[in-house]
Design a protein that fits this description.
heterodimer; A: 387 residues; alpha/beta; Rossmann fold; Ubiquitin-like (UB roll); de novo design (two linked rop proteins); 3 domains; five-stranded mixed sheet; four-stranded parallel sheet; 16 helices; 11 strands; B: 599 residues; Alpha-Beta Plaits; 4 domains; 17 strands; 34% helix; globular; binds flavin mononucleotide; binds iron/sulfur cluster; binds FE2/S2 (inorganic) cluster
């Protein structure tokens, strides 16, 4: 067996000579054919939740409604993640094609890109390109228009239902689910919302063919993924890697020789300690990720890292629901109190229990995922948290 | 079309319900109680407190019962270990950020959070106290509403109330994370924003975060001041609700017991706002007929039709903020409360030989906006503040309890004379459509000399809880002096809840709808659903109070305002005619344009 399973790939950022040809070729097919190809490809969403993209489109298509929407989620708010920005800068036409195909498949006339507020400086480049693209699709007789919307600057607005609220001019607070976006999304109409990278993969599956895509990855994690790699690594940056690699392979490539832990999936992801590098897989069968991977060497205090994550969430929670709003403050103040000896070490168990409640009882993915970093850091680095 | 039926199991008990039913409602049908906090039957679903979470077999996360529709084959557990743990955590978390000083809280013993804390035995709180000390300063800038966010559980019931029912949005969620709170426009104090003081947010708040400004101590002081002659007036809707605070079923009429209780509290005279409700009808009815004459006969372009009623002070402030250009459409009549104050401190004082400066007028109202109204600078026709203190129904109930009165066993008694007589028309002011019905009973008779052509005087088209009601009455057989109204189809409309009022006003402003006369009440259901009424509130409860009100009307010997002998005596001895110069001085007022966001 090959010991290094790590494979660098160049699909997302690869330059295609005449990208519009991909669109032309795809438009020869019926929406159902395209959807079935995407289902067959096994493509799962690259925004974090990993929902099968083809199924999402199929559900949205099957909804009976005159008005439907496509949304490209370009809110990229996860700290340390900047891969969507690079995709937007380098291959915007591949995103546009993905959006147009989504609209074609589900039967939408409007497709919005919801761009992170902090990326507003990209607008001057995107808008003319979008206008050009809109013209091109008009020329092809496709009744779809792409629009650009600026985000509100809040992390929570990357959560799909909060994003809809924000687009509707309301406060960005996640909604109750069900109904899911495929049934009632933006303006309460059936909506297919996808991450930037997901849409580019759709385009590239059309370009390369389903079989080519399926050659990469594993049964549960088809294809490749763009990673934002940061922390204690000599070579930080953006890399496209085949899915399904072991953390140990990853560390061999990107570590600095002293890696003690890897945080996969950003602040809301899991912390993998050295002892588990060998038996942990990066992918939907192991630890899924929206793209962020951070490496930590032995000079790092895991207490500080956890404290930073909790600080971030305490500030970015929309704070509408009790477990997340008050729970986060409890976790943060709780580890501080333990550190200061105001609470006994056993109080950590209360906090772990609390984080489990947050996981099952919070309203949206933010509160639900706080237990991931919390439990994985606290359980694996207990001494660092307590002493 | 009949809705599809869904089969599911809750705690292993099978049940079939209509598609779209929430887990919460399905459980209710099985008499399984699931605790709630952010849920309210009047409001849209929020699903944010998470105290109602239940386990759905196969789901990764617990589901909010209030927000989750049932699905075929669902298996739900409302009391599993995970559910219990989560609920306890949610309650403890709320308490951990809460100023849980119940003994100094006006919601003590009638607080939804406190009830849950008791029910779930939150005795040993494990979690840290994370209340932000900055939150401890309450906003008491408004004469009507007190806002204390140290008692807030972030359920947003107030925000939804103010936006969905009242179309005011004076309250909003501000900030995110640990900073998130219920605030106002740029966090200005409540008395400086568009708040109408309606108190619906108070009525819908589960805790002591929003309460009325309490004037119980001031009233006790007045009663116990031997130099003061203290009169009290009770609004129509109080008599069918105060019993709820004192052991009676929803909507029970307890007028006679309430009067006895007020006498025993030590008021020098117990009088009735219904009296000035009847007076309002004569003033407002005359004003309407005069406006119609000026519009139809004199073709006076200055005269504003439709005319809107003006008895609901929240509605007045709403118009001053949102439709300042339409203030001319408001009747110039003061509300019955303020007519009462002005007449009490002049006519009544004179008849009794009391110096007005030694009089204290206390009102008992179903309303918090009346607290604000009493302090408006225009409301000093007697030379003094016409109404000194306004108590809500809830505050009066507190006083009755404090005095050790066993309300249940009280005998009944009658209001005191001079300003205590009323007709059924005055009573129905307490329900939406009541002012309209009372006005029509009188105006029709003035114009035609005959009773309004509805069986038993019940003008049913303007009754009930539809948000906007309409009626058309053809005027026939007019007296000679009203012949210009012969054959006229009088078009009237009634709206309650400011969101409905707003729809109506907007359509009128845009020229899409045309009426002669419109009744608006600020609160859902009219005053019987006012912001000062007992907790809790729902349409079922409002319905029971409405029944109480209409049965009081039915049972009174007098049914028409112009039959009220004390009102006629007031005109004869003091005011002269309706809309006379004197009447204008005491009973009418002015309105002032306000800004859209700030006072
Ligand atoms: C707190 C939170 C923040 C999120 N932020 C983003 C984001 O910035 N970009 C994104 O694509 N998805 C984000 N998501 C996931 C979206 O809700 C949604 O699942 C995703 O856009 C779907 O696209 P996909 O199926 O292509 O992954 C976020 C989710 C949560 C709970
Ligand atoms: S989990 Fe957090 S971010 Fe999500 S709805 Fe609740 S408070 Fe808002
Ligand atoms: S709001 Fe309720 S729980 Fe809070 S102090 Fe008041 S009575 Fe107690
Ligand atoms: S009193 Fe009425 S207007 Fe004022 S904040 Fe409350 S609900 Fe809104
Ligand atoms: S003020 Fe009352 S109603 Fe409003 S959010 Fe707070 S607790 Fe809920
Ligand atoms: S009552 Fe269901 S979440 Fe609050």
């Amino acid at each position: 067996m090959d010991t290094s399973n790590l494979k660098k790939v160049d699909i997302i950022f690869s330059k295609v000579d005449n990208p519009l040809q991909i669109l032309d070729k795809a438009l020869q097919k019926s929406p159902d054919d395209i959807i079935n190809e995407i289902i067959d490809s096994g493509l799962k969403g690259r925004g974090g939740a990993g929902f099968p993209t083809g199924l999402k489109w199929k559900f949205t298509k099957n909804e009976d409604s005159d008005v439907k929407y496509v949304i490209c989620n370009a809110d990229e708010g996860e700290p340390g993640t900047f891969k969507d920005r690079q995709i937007i800068e380098e291959v915007p036409e591949k995103i546009f094609i993905g959006m147009a195909l989504a609209a074609y498949c589900i039967g939408a006339k409007e497709a919005y890109m919801y761009l992170r507020g902090e990326y507003n400086f990209l607008k001057k480049d995107i808008i003319p390109k979008m206008e050009w693209f809109n013209n091109e699709i008009k020329n092809r007789g496709l009744d779809v228009t792409l629009y650009l919307r600026s985000g509100s600057g809040a992390y929570i607005c990357g959560e799909e239902s909060a994003l809809f609220e924000s687009m509707e001019g309301k406060r960005g607070e996640p909604r109750n689910k069900p109904p899911y976006p495929t049934k009632a999304g933006y303006n309460n109409k059936p909506t297919s919302i996808n991450n930037v990278e997901t849409l580019v993969f759709v385009t590239m599956i059309q370009h390369l063919g389903v079989e080519e895509f399926k050659k990469l990855g594993t049964k549960d994690s088809r294809g490749s993924k763009v990673f934002s790699i940061s922390g204690d690594t000599p070579i930080p940056g953006i890399y496209e890697l085949e899915l399904g690699m072991k953390v140990s392979d990853f560390v061999r490539e990107f570590g600095d020789g002293d890696t003690k832990a890897v945080q996969i999936g950003g602040a809301s992801g899991f912390c993998v300690p050295r002892k588990n590098f060998e038996n942990t897989i990066i992918g939907f069968e192991g630890i899924p990720t929206g793209g962020s991977v951070m490496l930590f060497n032995s000079s790092r205090s895991m207490y500080n890292i956890l404290h930073n994550y909790l600080d971030f969430f305490v500030e970015e929670s929309c704070a509408q629901c009790t477990p997340c709003r008050a729970g986060l403050q409890q976790l943060l103040k709780g580890i501080e109190a333990i550190k200061r000896r105001e609470k006994p070490a056993s109080y950590l168990n209360e906090l772990i229990k609390l984080s489990q409640t947050m996981k099952v009882a919070s309203k949206c993915g933010l509160g639900q995922s706080v237990a991931n970093p919390f439990v994985s850091i606290v359980e694996n680095f207990k001494e660092e948290i307590i002493f | 079309m009949a809705k599809a039926l869904i089969n599911l199991k809750i705690n292993d008990i099978p049940i079939t319900v209509e598609e779209g039913t929430t887990i919460l409602d399905a459980a209710k049908k099985l008499n399984i109680k699931i605790p709630t906090l952010c849920d309210h039957p009047d409001l849209s679903v929020a699903g944010n407190c998470r105290v109602c979470v239940v386990e759905v077999k196969g789901a990764r996360y617990l589901q909010a019962a209030c927000a989750t529709p049932v699905a075929e084959g669902m298996e739900i557990y409302t009391n599993s270990q995970t559910v219990r743990q989560s609920r306890k955590h949610v309650i403890e978390l709320l308490l951990s950020e809460h100023n849980a000083d119940c003994t100094s809280c006006s919601r003590n013993s009638k607080c939804e959070l406190q009830d849950l804390a008791a029910e779930y035995h939150i005795f040993d709180r494990v979690l840290l106290d994370i209340l932000d000390p900055e939150n401890l300063i309450a906003d008491i800038s408004s004469p009507a509403i007190k806002k204390d966010i140290s008692k807030c559980i972030h359920c947003q019931r107030c925000v939804r109330t103010c936006e969905e029912l009242q179309y005011v949005s004076a309250l909003a969620v501000i900030g995110k994370g640990a900073e998130q709170h219920i605030g106002t426009f740029f966090d200005y104090p409540l008395n400086e924003v568009v708040c109408t003081n309606c108190g619906q947010c108070v009525l819908h708040c589960p805790t002591g975060a929003l309460t009325e400004r309490n004037y119980v101590e001031e009233v006790w002081d007045a009663i116990n001041d031997p130099t003061k002659h203290v009169v009290v007036q009770t609004a129509p809707a109080v008599r069918v609700a105060i019993g709820e605070e004192l052991g009676f079923a929803y909507g029970t009429r307890v007028t006679g017991k309430m009067v006895t209780a007020l006498k025993r509290l030590g008021f020098d005279s117990v009088l009735d706002t219904d009296f000035t409700a009847d007076l309002t009808i004569l003033e407002e009815g005359t004003e309407l007929l005069t406006r119609l004459k000026r519009a139809l006969v004199d073709k006076d372009p200055e005269v504003k039709i439709p005319m809107f009623t003006s008895c609901s002070p929240g509605w007045i402030k709403f118009m001053e903020h949102l439709y300042p250009e339409m203030l001319g459409h408001l009747s110039t009549c003061k509300s019955p409360q303020q007519m009462f104050g002005a007449v009490a401190k002049t006519y009544y004082a004179q008849k009794k030989g009391i110096n007005s400066k030694d009089m204290i007028v206390v009102s008992v109202m179903p309303c918090t906006a009346k607290k604000y109204e009493a302090q408006r600078p225009e409301m000093r026709s007697s030379g003094y503040q016409d109404v000194d203190y306004v108590l809500t129904t809830r505050e009066l109930a507190t006083m009755i309890k404090q005095a050790g009165i066993d309300f249940m066993s009280l005998p009944e008694s009658d209001y005191d004379p001079l300003m205590g007589e009323s007709s059924g028309a005055g009573v129905i002011f307490g329900a939406t459509g009541g002012v309209m019905e009372a006005a029509l009973r009188t105006a029709y008779e003035i114009v035609t000399g005959r009773e309004v052509p509805f069986k038993n005087l019940e003008i049913t088209p303007v009754r009930g809880f539809d948000g906007i009601k309409e009626a058309t009455i053809k005027i026939e057989g007019t007296k000679p002096e009203w012949s210009f109204l012969e054959g006229v189809e009088l078009k009237v409309a009634v709206a309650h809840e400011l969101a409905n009022a707003n729809k109506l006003v907007r359509a009128i402003k845009e020229g899409k709808l045309h009426y002669h006369f419109i009744e608006i009440m600020t609160c859902p259901g009219g005053c019987l659903g006012g912001g000062g009424q007992p907790y809790p509130v729902s349409w079922e409860i409002r319905q029971m109070r409405a029944q109480g009100i209409y049965s009081e009307d039915e049972n009174l010997p007098l049914r028409k305002s112009h039959d009220n002998p004390e009102v006629m005596q007031l005109y004869e001895e003091y005011l002269g005619q309706p809309n006379s110069h004197k009447a204008h001085e005491l009973l009418h007022t002015h309105y002032f344009p306000r800004k859209k966001y700030l006072n």
